[in-house]
From TrEMBL:
The gene is ydhJ. GO terms for biological process: dGTP catabolic process. The keyword DNA-binding does not apply. Transmembrane segments: none annotated. Pfam families: HD, HD_assoc_2. The keyword Nuclease does not apply. It comes from Apilactobacillus kunkeei. The lineage of its organism: Bacteria, Bacillati, Bacillota, Bacilli, Lactobacillales. This is HD superfamily phosphohydrolase.
Length: 448
């Protein structure tokens, strides 16, 4: 039996709190899970600093990646059972595509770094590009496992990640507006944060999902399950992903890494405060091996050491991040945005360097996007299949989805030190500054 076709003598299962059982049937999937690059994902939190807000959010990229694999496996099973291809080009499911779909699903996040999105912003890395490099580089264990299928197989898997794989059914399983990735992270994040907003009927959605020539569509009688999924995603962004405290901790983390980057020449000495594993990134000269050595725990260890730094800003920001001392924030809009420089001036007068202790942070999400030929980039819209076999786009028939289609929902916030809200006039030298500052804050909003 060729490696490609090799099934485990007995399928292996992972117990999962969200999907119950995750079934591994192919030797290649088990071998990929056991690579060092995939095991690294155990040490990277799925939601980064959000665990400072939702204390249960300790789940990892590893658990999410297994979940995306399992949902993709279930999609493949459903397609094979109900919509198997009879002749080439009939638009139904060709099960020879299963293995590339399963491998791409499992590996879709393997390039995420420590505190990934914040790290990317500071050091200019790109987790999708690094994912493809891990898959295609001959130096990685992942590549060596995939190459056993065929010499071209790693590039095929990587092409699913960058959306150039010719079979759109496979691409849309992993990346579309209703895909295995989004479905798993919504359910998993809802479970671990304790926020029920993200729950939806996964079983029903998988039941009404079907392949067609253009990719993946949904039976029209399952429209309400898809609606529920769209609204669940909207609620998770507004209530969990955009939570002001989580964003505040991301601001602190970003400023902490920025300060360390600026102090890199001073940190480049051989003592316990030297972040040896970060130095290649400070110097913008890193390899894939350097990248794979980093995880959340490595960064946290450096942050704990930096609390003892002689640099007061680095020390204070490290303390605020490690010991959860978030910045405060208020919403602002077009009318009050002009106040921000004045607010920053008062913060500076109170002794805080505004570069490191203030920020403006915009968080917006597009709950659903229909195709617009005038847009340069557009998402894969959700198609519903009517009884006569014709297609109709979701927002054209769903009033609920139509109400949020194309609308960016979220807010703009101004972040500042909690000390600026001090009320203790007996002991604080800066009380007059605090009073002027506080006159412009009411009901969590910046006011004139």
């Amino acid at each position: 039996m060729e490696y490609q076709e090799k099934l485990l003598p007995r399928e292996k299962v992972f117990r999962d709190p969200v999907l119950n059982y995750i079934y591994v049937q192919h030797q290649v999937i088990l071998d990929l899970i056991n690579t060092k690059e995939f095991q690294r994902l155990r040490r990277i939190k799925q939601l980064g600093p959000a665990s400072y807000t939702f204390h249960g959010a300790e789940h990892s990229r590893f658990t999410h990646s297994l979940g995306v694999y399992e949902i993709t496996r279930r999609i493949c099973d459903g397609f094979l059972r109900n919509y198997p291809s009879k002749v080439s080009g009939d638009g139904l499911w060709d099960d020879s595509q299963r293995l590339v779909a399963l491998c791409a699903a499992l590996l879709h996040d393997i390039g995420h770094g420590a505190y990934s999105h914040t790290f990317e912003h500071i050091f200019g890395t790109n987790h999708e590009a690094i994912t493809q490099e891990i898959i295609t580089s001959e130096k990685t264990e992942v590549n060596q496992v995939l190459s056993k299928i065929s010499p071209s197989f790693p590039k095929e898997v990587a092409s699913v990640i960058d959306h150039t794989y010719p079979n759109q059914q496979v691409v849309q399983m992993i990346s579309s507006q209703c895909d295995a990735d989004r479905m798993d992270y919504l359910l998993r994040d809802a479970y671990n944060t304790g926020a029920n907003y993200g729950n939806f009927d996964l079983t029903r959605i998988l039941r009404v999902m079907r392949p067609y020539e253009g990719g993946i569509c949904f039976e029209i009688n399952g429209m309400h399950a898809v609606e529920d999924y769209i609204i669940s995603r909207l609620q998770m962004y507004m209530q969990v992903y955009f939570h002001p405290v989580s964003r505040s901790m991301e601001v602190i983390l970003s400023h902490l890494l920025q300060r360390a980057k600026e102090l890199a020449s001073q940190l480049d000495k051989n003592d316990r405060l030297t972040p040896h594993l970060l130095m290649p990134f400070f110097k913008n000269d890193f390899t894939i091996d350097d990248y794979l050595k980093l995880d959340d725990g490595v960064l946290n260890t450096y942050f704990i050491n930096w609390i003892d730094s002689d640099d007061k800003i680095l020390s204070d920001l490290a303390d605020r991040f490690i010991n959860r001392k978030p910045l405060k924030s208020v919403e602002y809009n077009n009318e009050t945005e002009s106040l921000i420089p004045t607010m920053q001036k008062w913060i500076q007068e109170a002794g805080f360097e505004t570069t490191y202790y203030t920020a403006v942070n915009n968080s917006f999400d597009l709950p659903y996007d229909a195709y617009d030929p005038n847009k340069k980039h557009h998402a894969t819209q959700i198609e519903l299949r009517r009884n006569d076999g014709t297609m109709i786009e979701l927002s054209k028939i769903s009033q609920l989805v139509s109400a949020v289609t194309g609308k960016h929902l979220g807010d703009e916030r101004f972040f500042f030190p909690k000390e600026m809200l001090s009320k203790d006039s007996d002991i604080d030298l800066f009380e007059p500054v605090y009073q002027e500052f506080q006159k412009h804050i009411k009901n969590d909003e910046l006011i004139k």
